[in-house]
Design a protein that fits this description.
The chain is built from four helices and five strands; from the N terminus they run βαβαβαββα. The protein is of the alpha+beta class. It is elongated, with a radius of gyration of 17 Å. It starts with a strand and ends in a 7-residue tail after the last helix.
């Protein structure tokens, strides 16, 4: 059985941006489930973590929201990327790639490389 991990700090915004970019407008519960699904059910994402991020992203203009019916005909707030959100996704992606490249260097270095 897979043990689920919490989302690492600083990665949730990027995952939400990419999820909305790929799948289009989704409600919060749908975003959380898709992130868990895409991770192969290795990540655990609760609403108390997701909704403050969505609120901040909306206040910053990266996402916009509107009310609509969910799959089970309940009222839900659907989030979509804005033009600013698409730009932020590219910036966040570039930053993440740079960070992972730096960390990868630390796993490759040996003591004799530093002399």
């Amino acid at each position: 059985m897979k043990q689920k991990k919490d989302v690492q700090q600083g990665t949730l915004t990027l995952m939400v941006l990419k999820t909305l970019h790929v799948l289009g407008p989704l409600h919060g519960y749908g975003i959380a489930r898709r992130i868990e699904q895409i991770s192969g059910d290795l990540l655990s994402l609760n609403q108390g973590t997701l909704y403050p991020v969505l609120l901040r992203m909306e206040q910053e203009g990266a996402v916009a929201s509107e009310w609509g019916p969910s799959e089970n005909n309940r009222r839900a707030r659907f989030y979509r990327l804005t033009r600013a959100g698409h730009k932020l996704l590219e910036t966040e992606k570039r930053n993440w790639e740079q960070t992972t490249a730096i960390i990868a260097r630390f796993f490759e270095v040996e003591a004799e490389d530093l002399s």
